[in-house]
Amino acid sequence: MIHEVDEVLKGLLSGGALAGSGIDVALDAPTRDWAARRNAPTINAYLYDIREDVNRRQRGHLPVLDEREVVVKHRQPPRWFRLSYLVTAWTKQPQDEHRLLSAVLATLIPRELIAPSELPGSLGALGMTIPMSVAGTQTESRSLAEIWSALGGELKPSLDLVITAPFPAYPEYDAGPPVTEGAAIRLRALDGTPPGTEERTHSTRQVAAGREARKAARRAKRLDGTP
């Protein structure tokens, strides 16, 4: 999941206001040694913190649908993790670095949500919209000054970028076959005579209507980004 978020982030930073600029995008730790080897203008996005967003944790199970939108399996809800990136610009002049950071802001600020169609691999297969925030209030326990100290570098203007992504939960459990008939009641007299005519409490039409209503609800959740 983390490497897929890296892929999405590199694509975002290479596009938008920076499209066609030829600026390199790196995920390396911006240490002194890395800075000394750099020989071209670069945007660096260093993943410095990973922790679960416990406010998004869910209980129960979710349906897994096949191509006919029939429930074939059940799985636990995904766990959501906050991936925090330290985004910096590296050039020879501070003014150029500030211009690059402005371009990064112009690219990322409108992108508060990333649609499932933009997500690769297992992340996209979940069909969930993931939130992204940039330059917000830092909630992690370590300050940016402490991070720079640990990296062995000097404090540098940076943007704190947080992408909250779902991590698939395993295993999956097989589901029973889909319901194709309504429920029925058989009656037997007290004297043991054979049962009479079946009385259905739900017709097949009602069952189908209920299934369609559940499909519509799931589609609405995917469109508004509800986990």
Automatic annotation (TrEMBL):
InterPro entries assigned: Pvc16_N
Region (Disordered): 190-227
Pfam families the UniProt entry points to: Pvc16_N
Pvc16 N-terminal domain location: 4-181
Protein name: DUF4255 domain-containing protein
